[in-house]
Amino acid sequence: MDFIIEAVVKAIKELYQTDIAAKDINLQETRKEFEGQVTLVTFPYTKLSRKGPEQTGTEIGEYLQNNVPEISAFNVIKGFLNISFADSFWLGKLHDEILADDFAVGKPNGKKVMVEYSSPNTNKPLHLGHIRNNLLGFSVAQILAAAGYEVIKTNLVNDRGIHICKSMLAWREFGEGETPESSGLKGDHLAGKYYVWFDKAYKQQILELVEEGQTEEEAKKNAPLIKEAQLMLQKWEAGDEDTINLWKTMNGWVYAGFAETYKTLGVEFDKYYYESNTYLLGKDIIEEGLEKGVFFRKDDGSVWIDLTADGLDQKLVLRADGTSVYITQDLGTAQLKYGDYKMDESIYVVGNEQDYHFKVLFLILQKLGKEWARGLYHLSYGMVDLPSGKMKSREGTVVDADDLMADMFNTAAETTEAMGKVDGFSEEDKNKLYRTIGMGALKYFLLKVDPKKRLLFDPKESIDFQGHTGPYIQFTHARIKSVLKKAGYNPTESKSETTELDELERELIVTLNKYPQTISDAAASFSPAIIANYIYDLAKIYTRFYHEKPIMLAEEENQKQFRLQLSAASAKVISKGMNLLGIDVPERM
RNA sequence: GGUCUCAUAGCUCAGCUGGAUAGAGCAACAGAUUUCUAAUCUGUCGGUCACAGGUUCGAAUCCUGUUGAGAUCACCA
């Protein structure tokens, strides 16, 4: 629509002898109740024209109609100039752009972006919160790729630390050699089981010590189990063979479990980083910061940065004993990642509970003079809450990722079978379909909401399959495919001489035409929700068209072919858009 | 207490850098299938955009304050 903006610039220059910048021109979609497709708000130009908004609109409208051949009509209502494009213009869009193979295929923009997401702890299985993270990360990566970026998907695995030692210790003490094979438990769930055991036993010990007269704080430090875990961590850091072997074994189980969950989720990574390899990084950056005077050392030897001038606090960056804290590692890892890929931008998909951490992290890197720090972005998403509040593993309110997905598949199977929709499907096809629909419902449910907002999930109310949902969109797609098949639609041979559009057809083309811009918008704000809502809009408009314009019963072949072309274009955009969300669309359902 | 986020229909959410009468879905109610898949469609009901000021020709959107909810402020990660 750039040519309209240019034309408006010219119009204003000629009519009112004033230069205005193209970016200051505000075009918007015409509301449905008015004639036209694009609207220019004329209030801002009344000062230039020294006339009322209606007259200004009429003058600009007349100029545009006389000078822009694509414009067929205009009308002015109050301060709104509604512009209509000729049907030939929209038909040209359909045939030359939308139906072309390379529609909305982003041209490489020469930029490299890293998307870090998932980043699990290896001491317990994934839950619903992780699902949101994984789906967001994967989808944002897809969207950026579609927008022309070269994308590197990374996973920084938190595979060491006191929490890992807890499950290791519990397994060694109470596990009796249990393995995933012997127990039939998925590896990550097995590790999680011992993590919970540890927590329980530890709590018990604290309770006992408190009864013996210690304060709770003392008890937490003195409980034999936590001391044992800390000892284990020290041994791990010292490279003790038994400890390392145990760690490798249990982490191996967890990785196998995660791999399965990732596969079901449909997410993947180009590069894994492990904290066991990176936790010592960052100390050289501390040195660098001390030399540059960005950091300072306190008497006890600990190193700090003073961010009070930036409205933040003083922040510890290295402990008095010379060991790293979380941010030390992150400083080092950021440097490592940049060294590996030299990416222009780097997106951290991490929950908003870490807003402060990332603010500090990025600020420190900037203060250290790292040019690339300007490309860092924290994609801060809201927590997934239950009606009862936060998910808490201790209270057993965690919605387990594997359980939830299994539930979704079952619900999809029941619903589909109850509707008798799978006649003629093989067992294999049925199962594939149930998974497609189940995951479609789950993914759409999580991705349609603005990432920044917290998200409410009620386990008692299963995720809908009707209305504004993934399955609705999948159904729309399947329906189109079914008609195309029945009609024997052939994209290369299909011809239509249609020259006039009715309102619904025009609206459909206008909506299809918005797809490339929607990708740009979604990429600019890292928001799959923008794609999700767009596709729903498209599916809804298509469905209305579908109901009102019978394709097979079209009065003439020309008309039928045109409707088929519109249908094919809609199916294509639905499918591509859903793909950006990581959601498959079935041919039949 | 400091800092940061959020508040739109009974519920879950849209509403792009300020623009026309604030939109969907669910729920409720009334309809639509001799016709391409009814996981669908059409219609009805439902709003003091938390509250109060301000800026503006114009505010759900920007600013200030109030109330409410959440997060964070560890030599945890």
Automatic annotation (TrEMBL):
A GO CC term assigned to this protein in UniProt: cytoplasm
Enzyme Commission identifier(s): 6.1.1.19
Tree of life domain: Bacteria
A molecular function GO annotation: ATP binding
EC class name: ligase
Keyword set, alphabetical order: Aminoacyl-tRNA synthetase, ATP-binding, Cytoplasm, Ligase, Nucleotide-binding, Protein biosynthesis
Stretches assigned to the Arginyl tRNA synthetase N-terminal domain: 2-85
Pfam families, per the entry: DALR_1, tRNA-synt_1d
Compartment annotation: Cytoplasm
One biological process term in Gene Ontology: arginyl-tRNA aminoacylation
Coiled-coil parts of chain: none
Chain span(s) of sequence motif 'HIGH' region: 120-130
Catalytic activity: tRNA(Arg) + L-arginine + ATP = L-arginyl-tRNA(Arg) + AMP + diphosphate
Residue stretches making up the DALR anticodon binding domain: 473-589
Family per record: Belongs to the class-I aminoacyl-tRNA synthetase family.
Assembly information from the UniProt record: Monomer.
Name by which UniProt lists this protein: Arginine--tRNA ligase
